[in-house]
Amino acid sequence: MEIDYIKYLPVIAAILSVVLGFMFGTRTKKNDRLMQYTEENLEKLFSPMYHEMLKIISCEKPKEREELIDVFFVKYLASDTPIYKIGSLELLDTFYELNDSYNKFKRERDEEIWDEFFYNFECVIFYKVNEGYRNSTNLLYRDFNWHQYIQTKPYWMKFYFESMKFLYETIKGVTVISLLLFYFSGCFSLFKIGLFPKDFWLLSLAFLGLSALTMLILLVPNAQYISLTSNSKQSFTRKVMRKHFPKLRANWDGLFRVKKDYDKVPKMYKKQLFKDESVRDDNE
Q1: Cα separation of 10 and 267, whole Å?
Q2: Cα(264)–Cα(119) distance, rounded to whole angstroms?
């Protein structure tokens, strides 16, 4: 069966131009706003909050740890708090519930309440803040090492590196588009839906194979770019999951983090309510 590829080329070209135009044109302003908000959130919330929580978790003295927690909640419950920049209503509700739990502990000083509080502090709030801190840092600085690297090169090498990068990023987009075209045209052809021209799925498959092969070829001249823009030390699979399937990765990570197995809760500060607080407690 012969296929007249020429008559399908205008359809392919129109689809590619629309999608690529959206990818490289209309999204520019949204990406600029995203970068602006990300930088502001990283500076005013994620970075200070992450390091304050890290200090609390790593503190070995119960009394000092409790004092740090007091300061933490006073800061992020103030009228000018930047906590809203955390960007999740569910996480905000968890934060306020955590404060209620801590206040209950302060009133009753019960060890079970303390265990419950600290588990949620480290494994829920800190886990999400750490994720936001890492994602924001990666978004802002993923291209920093790359641009620093090419700035030391002669102008003709800069042009070469930037051209290879553009071709690589473009062909990645074309590969995704070709995959989607093949998927939908194949499904429509299978179910006899005449939305696409007859045998269009074969042409889409040819484009998919060609673009995938081209992308593999471009991996070689772009090896330095890929290496310098990969900030994470984790495996390739987890990088792909983190970038394209963040919710799936988070659910998978939390699947085996059973609460009863969490044994890192530090000792609570056993404050002597009716004694002079200047006397040092045995557990400090």
Answers
A1: 70
A2: 8
Model confidence, pTM: 0.61
**What are the backbone angles phi and psi of residue 163, rounded to the nearest 5°?**
-65, -45
Distance CA 99, CA 23 (A): 43
Can you give the three-state secondary structure of 136-148, one letter per residue? HHHHHHCCHHHHH
Q: Count CB atoms within 10 A of the CB of residue 153.
A: 12
Tens digit of each residue's pLDDT (9 = 90 or more) over 44-99: 999 999 999 999 999 989 999 999 999 999 999 999 999 998 888 888 999 999 99
Identity of the amino acid at 191: F
Distances in whole angstroms, Cα of residue 86 to Cα of each of 4, 94, 152:
54, 12, 38
For helices 246-255 and 236-244, angle between their N-to-C axes, nearest 10 degrees: 120
Residue 6 token pair: 């020429």
Query: Measured over all CA atoms, what is the biggest interatomic distance in the chain, rounded to whole angstroms?
Result: 94
Positive or negative: CA dihedral 127, 133, 138, 144: negative
Tens of pLDDT, residues 151-163: 888 888 888 888 9
The alpha carbon of 246 is separated from its chain's Cα centroid by a whole number of angstroms, namely 7
